[in-house]
Amino acid sequence: MLELEARVASLPKVELHQHVDGSIPTEVTWELMRHYGLNPVPSLEEMRRLLEIQDDEEGSLLAYLDKMHYPLWVTQFYENITRVTEAIVDAAAAAGVATLELRYSPIIHTYAGLTPRQSIRAVLSGMNHARKRHDMKLGLIVIAMRQHGPHIAKILARQAIAEAQHLHSRTGVVGFDIAGPEHGNPPRLFRSAYEIAGLGHLGLTAHAGEDAPADYVWQAVDELGAQRIGHGCAAVQDGELMRRLAKDRIVVECCLSSNYNTGAVGRGAPHPIAAFLEAGVPVAICCDNSTVSRTDQTRETLRAAEQIGLDAVETIHRESAAYTFIRPERALQDADAD
Ligand SMILES: [Zn+2]
Rounded CA gap, 278 and 167, in Å? Predict the structure, then answer.
């Protein structure tokens, strides 16, 4: 077992689906709260219980999402957003991540007056600081929350393009995504936002089929032009959809711990990653929210290896490098600040 862990730890890993808000190391949130005198509980250990899923909370999407609220008290300010992002990149580097796409909803960090553009810049600034310490490929995916509606999504798509990687000589926005409650917010409503993001040469992914049926995955593929799908668990119930994902090389970003935590996959049931592989659907192994799910890329990869074997996870990480939205660096002449 130790040999297995060592092999996975040293494997250069690809992380394509990780949220900033659910991945801030608890110690960092605790320190920032202490700075402002905001701690809701007296000790770091109790803070951990508020920010990280507990065994008796597993299986509930609501309990899982509840874990994201406290960090938002402090991640409304530019320098705090920069600091937490640096800490997330540092932790990913320590887990052997070589390619890291973080994702982030700019709007929920504007409550204290940041503009959406500043909110995006704050994360990019943290990534730029961190990349000086680590030899990693880095990129940001901008998320539009479904519950904020299609108009806000269009505005965000335009803001995301302004910070696109191919227009700057530093870390930039590489993709566009929708997340948040699926039911009542079908993907087809966000078609215009995806059209804009596509025209701006951003990669397109969408959370779909985590908590909603396969029809939402169809919509993400057919109507939004998604090249990757976040979770996509429901797709395994639809053979035609599985053949479509395989034929068009649409990648499913699999988040094992998260899916068991939220109940998207039942306790003890096999994760659909095996069915995706069997059907020839490309997959990636992803953390989703490393703090909430008490995981990191090494642990996620080991968890996947338990179900599909070590050779398969090594192949997945090798092949996932081709599915990143991050482009090769280009030497632009502009001299952007940090
Ligand atoms: Zn996610």
Answer: 39
Question: Ligand 1: distance of its center to the CA of 326 in Å?
Answer: 18
- CA atoms of 97 and 15, how far apart (whole Å): 7
Structural domain of residue 110, as residue ranges? 2-323
Tell me what percent of the residues of the chain surpass a pLDDT of 70: 97
- 106 burial class (0-12, 13-18, 19+ CB within 10 angstroms)? buried
Please tell me which residue in 52, 182, 210, 253 is annotated as part of the active site: 210
329 — pLDDT class (breaks 50, 70, 90): confident
Give 17 Cα–ligand 1 centroid separation in angstroms: 6
Quote the ligand 1 centre to 207 CA distance (angstroms). 6
Distance 116 CA to ligand 1 centre (A): 20
DSSP string computed for 224-271? T--SEEEE-GGGGG-HHHHHHHHHTTPEEEE-HHHHHHHTSS-TTSPP
How is 173-207 classified by DSSP, letter by letter?
EEEEEEES--TT--GGGGHHHHHHHHHTT-EEEEE
CB atoms within 10 A of CB 37: 6
In a domain, 329, yes or no: no
Q: State in Å: Cα 230 to ligand 1 middle.
A: 6
- CA gyration radius, the chain: 19
The CATH number of the domain holding residue 78 is 3.20.20.140
Instruction: Please confirm, yes or no, whether 253 is among the known catalytic residues.
Output: no
Within a domain: 82: yes
Q: What is the pLDDT of residue 169?
A: 87
34-87 residue pLDDT tens: 999 999 999 999 999 999 999 999 998 889 999 999 999 999 999 999 999 999
For residue 226, the CA-to-ligand 1 centroid distance in Å is: 15
Helix (H, G, I), strand (E, B) or coil at 220: helix
* Residue 337 domain flag: no
Work out how many domains the chain is built from and give that number.
1
Asked if the structure places residue 330 within a domain, the reply is no
pLDDT in tens, 189-236: 999 999 999 999 999 999 999 989 999 999 999 999 999 999 999 999
